[in-house]
Design a protein that fits this description.
Two copies of one chain form a homodimer.
Chain A (H helix, E strand, L loop, with lengths): L2 E6 L6 H14 L3 E7 L13 H10 L4 E5 L1 H4 L3 H14 L4 E6 L5 H12 L1 H13 L4 H10 L14 H15 L5 E6 L18 H11 L11 H12 L6 H14 L2 H4 L9 H10 L4 H8 L6 H13 L3 H8 L7 E7 H10 L7 E2 L10 H20 L14 E4 L4 E4 L3
Parallel strand pairs in A: 1-2, 1-4, 2-3, 4-5, 6-7, 6-8
Antiparallel strand pairs in A: 3-6, 8-9
């Protein structure tokens, strides 16, 4: 039996993602497709555009059989940790194939790159440190150090491309965790990950789609870049004011920074080198999140690095908790967000072999697992912004929501968003 | 030279307050009238209806010569501490007379009461403890214990009346701090402190005035109960959505309780006997502040006691900070909020004798005094709600605002709210 895994954010699910899903099925011949999806806060330190439940719905409609959550402690991290958590979950679920999208599009250069970096490990580390010392950001220093190894005649990947970086770490994690997973890649088409402008084609990056929504204040421009079901559900969320961005959370962050001392904020994950002092100072005079970030960023600290720190401050993700959660480099449980009949049959089939609990519903006041306690805080914070946006509607409550169940034959949700 | 002091909240300033000001001038023959006024958070654990700057403006228009701030550490407290802080400030400013409003209306019964409680101290304490053990709230237990002393033939005060309680503690503080201040009282007319319904007269309690504003969504009903200038400024604040209540701060409190552990909240002032656990639990399912408080209150904990705890949680006022600030039972500085020429002349006259600094403008990043650090946090939190209510207007910034200066002859503000 072939089971393919994909690692996704679907923020929101667009035509490029559909292409990736189709290619993954074709290339792997998978009977079951499992997606590990980030929850409420994403890799670049941003809140998700729409709730994880709605994104799960879109994933099921796009043909994913099982959607599980990548816990907060992994989802808001640099590529290395993000990958190790995601891959561990695919491993737990008995996935046989992993297929990722990349700028590169072929798997051999990824293999070569891992071999080369292994081989020149010492030289690479030395150069990396040198560039960091010179004040370059972490990803930039990596890319520069790597460029200098490119004297070999092997075909290597371009490590300045964000999806190549992720793919590199997926492959590396599979090797490190010694998982029996075959890794392949699909070339991303039509748009770069970081592209902020939409072109006229049917493929656009999620970044440019989000930007178009917030800049134009409507969804017209994104119509051709997303599947019809994405458009329909996003439109409905948009009309009910249930679409989120950092600005919706900024008052809470500002509040927190108004009442806490720099000393107490230094316990937050990624608060290093006195960044917390700088943040408190700049926050005082910044009325919007964008102004704040613009003043905050430097050559040394990328926007993404700083946004992640802000997310950790918002969620109160402490060093101690995060490091405890990350200790094993693997997820200690799997939160099931949604499935169809095919997915359910597969889960029934493997659940006794899964080395960690598969959680279908949360229990209140039971969050001793630091990984889960972080997920709960993230969910509560996300819900709060939802409440402020929606004073009169009761919003979906994390504790009450069972996994979504999609009847793929009759195109009908047997268990829907509450 | 006669200098009379009054201790006020002016939330908002109404006709009863005007009466108190006039009677204070008449009875004391004062040349200068000094008001110690609570800042952004008040004795019953509530945010002020309007900013302290606007309330200062109203005080100056009502004939007060000098308005100074009662620091947060004293303003959000039970009567005993509230009184000791207020009285210490009047002492620092060389006040010769203190005149308070009370249900009682004569000073002798206050004197008698202090003597009696002193005399029967042990018996009183014993009875107090008994009633507390039986589960009565602190004020109720006090009133019950006191009732049993009333066997003497002296005329005593009714200690179940809120303004009598405050007055009792003012007089007691003056004695304890051995201040050369003559204490007198004016009978409150027309409305009880706790009255929630407005009658048809020109006197109504501040409580009923606030209730009328929020219930009716307009200021029509309060017109006859407040001076014309109060009406005019409140109307203008109301039209600009700059009128506040707990609901405006509830999302921030809810946010904080979503990300903190009960253990870390147990460091908050007045978080005792596991109240923090109860608060976190009840908060999760309460969508409005009122629902939340309704579920929270018990026989043992009065609404006021719990509201104060919520305020301390909101402002992050820790036990350590508050106790450090309260150590001396006296204010360590005086924040000047406003004055007229008469007041300014008096301040120039006494400033060299004042034993603590008189602060006219705050310096950023200079809040080593725990009393001031608490005031700064309170101001920042209050401003945040103001920002959410007013996304497009720059709100008055605590750091930028110099004391208001009122030209009482020309009815003109020389230095106004920025």
């Amino acid at each position: 039996m072939k089971v393919a895994g994909v690692i996704v954010e679907y923020n929101p699910l667009h035509n490029g993602h559909l292409h990736h899903i189709q290619k993954t099925r074709e290339n792997t011949g998978a009977d079951v497709l499992v997606a590990v999806m980030s929850g409420y806060f994403l890799q670049r330190g941003e809140p998700a555009l729409v709730s994880k439940w709605l994104r799960t719905k879109l994933a099921l409609l796009a043909g994913i059989d099982i959607v599980v959550e990548l816990p907060y402690a992994f989802s808001t991290q640099k590529a290395e940790i993000f990958a190790s958590g995601s891959v561990s979950i695919l491993g737990h679920l008995g996935v046989t194939d992993l297929c990722f999208g990349s700028e590169q599009g072929e798997i051999l250069p990824f293999e070569n790159t891992i071999t080369i970096i292994d081989q020149y490990g010492e030289q690479y580390d030395h150069q990396l440190k040198k560039y960091l010392k010179e004040g370059y950001s972490y990803p930039k220093a990596h890319a520069l150090a790597f460029q200098e190894l490119k004297t070999s005649n092997h075909s290597l990947i371009d490590l300045s491309q964000p999806n190549n970086i992720l793919g590199y770490h997926y492959l590396k994690s599979v090797k490190e965790q010694a998982l029996p997973i075959k890794v392949s890649t699909v070339k991303r088409i039509g748009a770069g990950y970081h592209d902020v402008h939409m072109n006229n084609g049917s493929i656009a990056s999620a970044t440019s789609i989000r930007k178009a929504i917030f800049e134009h204040g409507n969804l017209e421009e994104i119509y051709r870049a997303v599947p019809p079901f994405t458009y329909q559900y996003l439109k409905s969320a948009f009309d009910r004011n249930q679409i989120y961005r950092w600005d919706d959370f900024y008052p809470f962050l500002k509040y927190r920074l108004s009442i806490e001392t720099a000393e107490s904020l230094s316990s937050i994950y990624e608060a290093e080198e006195g960044l917390e002092n700088r943040i408190i100072k700049i926050m005082q005079d910044s009325n919007t999140f964008h102004t704040f970030m613009d003043k905050l960023k430097t050559k040394r600290y990328t926007w993404t690095r700083l946004q992640r720190l802000c997310t950790h401050m918002l969620v109160n993700a402490k060093k101690e908790e995060m490091l405890h959660a990350l200790n094993e480099k693997k997820a200690s449980y799997i939160r099931l967000l949604g499935m169809n009949q095919n997915g359910q049959a597969y889960l029934n089939h493997i659940k006794n072999q899964c080395p960690v609990p598969i959680i279908t519903r949360l229990k209140k006041d039971k969050d001793n697992d630091p990984l889960m306690s972080l997920d709960m805080k993230a969910a509560k914070v996300y819900e709060l912004a939802a409440i402020s946006n929606q004073p009169k509607n009761k919003i979906n409550n994390e504790f009450m929501q069972p996994p979504l169940r999609y009847d793929e034959l009759n195109h009908h949700f047997l268990s829907d968003i509450k």
